[in-house]
């Protein structure tokens, strides 16, 4: 950690001063909390252990922002991600979604869950086998065929390397959907879908170039190796916004000097895994 930092205040935590509950009822079975993966402004994500399977539960925002209610946002995000898991059910490499999450006899409308996939987030310099990215490309094409764009593929932490060495995609919170057979749809929705799907392929190509560069041509991804104009345009806004946000979080003492999320008191699971892998590598050396 670069400097002394303090925990996030309640307003910057999805559940405020609360932590994910110690026990949940998922699809009629009791699950107990094992580990909190992350807790940021948007959601708190935790691993729950059950008798038949383990589950990852995402508790979307319920904490108000200076009196402005935000439970509606949590419900909206949970519903759209649950819809994604339901629509994409059966695709190899996509975790099975859970239907009903409750606590103390009350359904939690801001919570979505999927079955836990044993594995770890794709590491920064991790070596993967030759079947990994062909498998990930197949998953992505299957997702696209269902009318979705994943949208968040630039984040390595959303790509899991399973204990079986196979790829898995998680976190459909900001995915985009345009029904292939819908008669009435928003204007330009299909055009936007194609742009976002091509963005998915561009970000996939970046990962392939980093981890298995010899496979870019083999997988037919050469045409996606150049950053498209819409991503360049998006970065004109997104990069300054991200930099400003990092500076503010550093200013209030929540993050270290770099402003990166890995410097927080409670860094998300992917960064903790990467730090552990680095420490293990040093010990082995």
Automatic annotation (TrEMBL):
An example molecular function term from Gene Ontology annotations: protein serine/threonine kinase activity
Keywords for the protein's UniProt record, in alphabetical order: Kinase, Serine/threonine-protein kinase, Transferase
Domain of life: Bacteria
Keyword Transferase: yes
InterPro entries: Kinase-like_dom_sf
UniProt-listed SUPFAM superfamilies: Protein kinase-like (PK-like)
Keyword flag Transferase: yes
Protein's UniProt name: Serine/threonine protein kinase
Species this protein is from: Rubinisphaera italica
């Amino acid at each position: 950690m670069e400097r002394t930092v303090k925990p996030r205040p309640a307003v910057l935590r999805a559940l405020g001063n609360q932590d994910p509950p110690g026990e949940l009822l998922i699809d009629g079975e009791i699950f107990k909390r094992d580990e909190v993966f992350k807790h940021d402004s948007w959601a708190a994500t935790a691993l729950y252990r059950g008798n038949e399977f383990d589950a990852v539960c995402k508790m979307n925002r319920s904490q108000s922002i200076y009196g402005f209610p935000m439970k509606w946002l949590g419900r909206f995000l949970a519903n759209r991600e649950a819809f994604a898991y339901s629509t994409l059910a059966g695709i190899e490499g996509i975790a099975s979604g859970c239907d009903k999450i409750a606590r103390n006899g009350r359904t939690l409308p801001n919570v979505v869950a999927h079955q836990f996939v044993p594995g770890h987030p794709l590491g920064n310099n991790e070596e993967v086998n030759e079947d990994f990215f062909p498998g990930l490309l197949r998953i992505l094409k299957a997702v696209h065929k269902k009318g979705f764009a994943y949208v968040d593929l630039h984040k390595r932490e959303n790509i899991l390397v399973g204990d079986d060495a196979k790829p898995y995609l998680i976190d459909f919170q900001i995915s985009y959907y345009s029904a292939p057979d819908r008669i009435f749809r928003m204007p330009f929705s299909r055009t936007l879908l194609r742009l976002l799907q091509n963005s998915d392929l561009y970000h996939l190509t970046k990962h392939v170039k980093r981890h298995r560069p010899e496979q870019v041509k083999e997988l037919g991804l050469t045409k996606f190796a150049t950053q498209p104009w819409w991503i360049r345009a998006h970065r004109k806004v997104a990069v300054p916004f991200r930099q400003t946000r990092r500076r503010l979080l550093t200013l209030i003492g929540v993050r270290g000097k770099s402003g990166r999320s890995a410097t927080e008191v409670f860094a998300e699971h992917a960064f903790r895994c990467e730090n552990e892998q680095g420490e293990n590598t040093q010990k082995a050396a």
